[in-house]
Amino acid sequence: MEKSGPLDVLKSLSFILVVSGLLWIVLYHWRRRKLYKLVSKVPGPSGYPIIGNALIFLFKDQVDLYDSIVKLYSNYSGLFKIWMGSEPFFCIYKPEHLEIVLNHRQCLAKSTHYDFTKPFMGNGLFSAPVNIWKKTRKLINPAFNQKLLDSFVPIFSEQAEIFLEVMKKNVGEEDLDIFAKISALQMDSVCETVMGIKMTTQTSPNDFGNKLDGAMAIAWMRAFNIPYHFEFIYAISKYGKEFNRLVSDLNKITKAVISEKMKNYEENMIARKNGEIIEETRKFKTFSELLVQLYHEDKQMSEQQIQDEVNTLLAAGTDTSTTTICFTLLTLGLHPELQEKVYEEIINVLGEDRVVTKQDLQHLDLLERFIKETMRLFPIAGFFMRKADDDIDLGDGVVPANATILINTMATHRNAKYWKDPLKFDPDRFLPEEVAKRHPYCYLPFSAGPRGCLGARYAIMSMKTNLATILRKYRITTDYKSIEEVSLKVHMLLRPADGFKLSLVERT
């Protein structure tokens, strides 16, 4: 018998590896046979082996990426699918589909693409797995009561008045970088209501807001670029290194604040046990203080969970409201006649110089409708994703378990099927009698269902306070001529590709 030489051994090993590889491929596809069957029944663009339809998004800048998504949705009248590598995405925008998905018990999970925010947000409400989200939401819900939100209005008003002082040197400036100014305003309001600290970003600019914005931009960029999904590629890239640096700096700040709140709470507990009277320095409790209280009362939240929620509130509360306020100022500038009507309402409610109070907000009806119509045309979360934990029957198609669902609210909000003359700006669309005529899921500025935005009321109250204060003092103009002229780009939230192009003119 001949002995096997090294070459024979190598051939045998190669044969085993090839056969094993082929068996793995066969087994992989056999286990996915149900998925393939369901996917085959849903229309969608043809793709390529291995990469699927990834070329639609690959190497696109933020503007081209937005345009590609819009074009893709315009080619289909309802449910359709795309392949991102081996992962199917089911794309929806019809209100009937949105209602099913956003309320389905097996569709509460966020897509794994949101994991890219976890180095900063951790398992906060925005990105937490369903089991953690359910527990935390139940604990935090009482914190968002109306009494607490009302106690924040004086802070909103104070910061808005500071904004007016800061803006004096920018009056009449063309193509003003309004986003940076409004972001500083929101950052100061959010930091004081969430963490109880005066950040003074408006008067003594610091880079906390810039770092937060930069970190979120990188996280969203990574979600749409498959090569950066691989940790070994992302970690050595300039984006991965920059993201880690930004998150480290941000976490140092929020961790220090939370540690201080924990220390203060413990000292106050000891003082009360000793019969001492604790003098309250503020008329309200911040979100971080309420979370610390939950931690000490029942130990159901860890220190890390508190930091995750504080970080989430900072990110969500700053960028979302800043973007919407800026878009609202833009639409005000595009419609000077309507702007004057809003101004008249503000003067009728507030007078010439009184600060905004909680009682005033309910009387600023036209202003609120103006904000809502702005959020229809420029929804802050134009696209978001959910994961199906089980098969989801949409009536005209089935989303298989483990598939990702891409929701495009922009396609819903600007659709002629649901909105007459959809690009026309008309705040009266949100009169009660008009709202009653529409499917409730035609309009989703804060998502909807059990996992809808918990801070929606906070956002509306903050935005109304800020806008009322600004519009009483300034008239807004813009270089844009129409809604159609405002091209958009995909950021963590939607942004105008060419900036907001706003100027503030002092009223006399």
Automatic annotation (TrEMBL):
Transmembrane segments: 12-30
Membrane topology: Peripheral membrane protein
PROSITE patterns: CYTOCHROME_P450
MF term (GO), any: metal ion binding
Record's subcellular location: Endoplasmic reticulum membrane; Microsome membrane
Keyword Transmembrane helix annotated: yes
InterPro entries: Cyt_P450, Cyt_P450_CS, Cyt_P450_E_grp-I, Cyt_P450_sf, Cytochrome_P450_Monoox
Cofactor(s) this protein cannot do without: heme
GO CC terms in record: endoplasmic reticulum membrane
PANTHER family attached to this UniProt entry: CYTOCHROME P450 4C3-RELATED, CYTOCHROME P450 FAMILY 4
Family in the record: Belongs to the cytochrome P450 family.
Function: May be involved in the metabolism of insect hormones and in the breakdown of synthetic insecticides.
UniProt name for this protein: Cytochrome P450
Species annotation: Cryptolaemus montrouzieri
